[in-house]
Amino acid sequence: xxxxxxxxxxxxxxxxxxxxxxxxxxxxxxxxxxxxxxxxxxxxxxxxxxxxxxxxxxxxxxxxxxxxxxxxxxxxxxxxxxxxxxxxxxxxxxxxxxxxxxxxxxxxxxxxxxxxxxxxxxxxxxxxxxxxxxxxxxxxxxxxxxxxxxxxxxxxxxxxxxxxxxxxxxxxxxxxxxxxxxxxxxxxxxxxxxxxxxxxxxxxxxxxxxxxxxxxxxxxxxxxxxxxxxxxxxxxxxxxxxxxxxxxxxxxxxxxxxxxxxxxxxxxxxxxxxxxxxxxxxxxxxxxxxxxxxxxxxxxxxxxxxxxxxxxxxxxxxxxxxxxxxxxxxxxxxxxxxxxxxxxxxxxxxxxxxxxxxxx
Length: 360
What we know:
Blueprint: H1 2-26, H2 28-53, H3 58-116, H4 121-140, H5 142-145, H6 149-168, H7 170-180, H8 186-224, H9 230-240, H10 246-263, H11 266-293, H12 300-314, H13 316-344
Helix pairs in contact: 1-13, 2-6, 3-4, 8-9, 8-11, 8-13, 9-10, 10-11, 12-13
């Protein structure tokens, strides 16, 4: 009987988690701005709390932060306005030429590969035709598919507004959560919150730092290399860096392709590709060790699996939040198992990825 009573809360929590996950999946599109605002507030809250502990009022800190951020964005916009307008006009005028050159290049590569693949020529030709046609269809559909990002942009306009109230209530909300937790499970709740904060917070802040640094360095490098559409390419590379390894891949493909088209030489494309590979190597050597020290470690196969599942279920937002969601799930499993083992009297094996906390 005591064992059933011990296992009851765990089973109830798992059932509630499953129901909440299914409900979230059903209405995830409507909740997108709230999820983004929660991430926004979560990343900024430690900074606000730090200055609040120094004696400043939270409201004054948040308002001052919003004013400073708005002023910085305005300065950036004023300085980059002409560049943004020029690149937009240039992209609109040259997009058909880019597509035509890509089609020519794809046809040349297809012709060469048809004779080199270890397959009958008719089989190789059909396979390559199918691949090329699929790829070109995707490229032609990019302008219309880009319209899908419009609702995401509109959601993004709500993020600072919702984030303001989440930041205001962050400390009270956490205190209320602890207060409403039954006294028997307060220790487990604090442990779980600590585990999630240690892994998720480090990952999210590191992800934003990485995206910002890669975007800035990419822009400076492309300007020095005199590549057209430097701002658009660097912004795309920086945003895609939120998804592991995608930023470097986008930089090599799009940046290298632009350099090839602009200068007409393989050497120009190679220089841009080498530049983005160098950024990726520098990221691994300089940034990732610091970020990884403060975030949860996931096996590369688990990382790939959650990215594929996130993209399939939630689209681009799934790609962005797949790894953070995996961080939360891993923390839940880790703390849940250590609590269950402690309650059941199990002895954890040496070196297990769980902390033997003597919950009472």
